[in-house]
Write a structure and sequence with these properties.
Distance between the termini: 26 Å
Number of domains: 1
Strand content: 35-45%
CATH class: Alpha Beta
Largest sheet: 6 strands, antiparallel
Structural class: alpha+beta
Radius of gyration: 14 Å
Number of helices: 2
Order of helices and strands: EEEHEEEEHE
Number of strands: 8
CATH topology: TATA-Binding Protein
Helix content: 10-25%
CATH architecture: 2-Layer Sandwich
Length: about 130
């Protein structure tokens, strides 16, 4: 398990605004936080909600999706990113202006909960 992961961001997504269909992102970076002890999606989602509610986050969830998903702003670092819970992992999705500090702080808070034991971090880069 990774104890001091790097949250360096090699690629930010490019934002597009196709006519009549909102916003789309091309490319980018995602960090998958994988608990040492397997957890069900509802349990992981509850842990994420507890972290967000404890602050320093401003956040909103997306209600009509088949997985828990939040748009998050860390008020200390001013970083904005998406957090999703899927397939037994917590996923941090980098947005065009996201920096590493906010991702690192979220990970530290997740580790402080004691839920899931230690956590591994896998970085996935699209568009390269």
């Amino acid at each position: 398990m990774t104890t001091d992961p790097s949250f360096s961001i090699p690629a930010h997504p490019q934002r597009r605004f196709p006519h009549g269909s909102g916003v789309e992102y091309e490319g980018g970076t995602e960090f998958r936080l994988i608990p040492e002890q397997e957890q069900a999606t509802p349990d992981l989602a509850e842990t994420v909600v507890d972290i967000l509610a404890a602050g320093p986050y401003r956040y909103g969830d997306f209600h009509d999706l088949p997985m828990p998903l939040w748009l998050v702003r860390d008020e200390e670092t001013t970083d904005v990113f998406r957090v999703a819970v899927r397939d037994g992992t917590v996923r941090l999705h980098v947005l065009p202006t996201t920096e590493s500090d906010g991702l690192q702080r979220f990970f530290e808070r997740l580790c402080e909960t004691g839920e899931g034991g230690s956590w591994a971090v896998q970085r996935h880069v699209d568009g390269q």
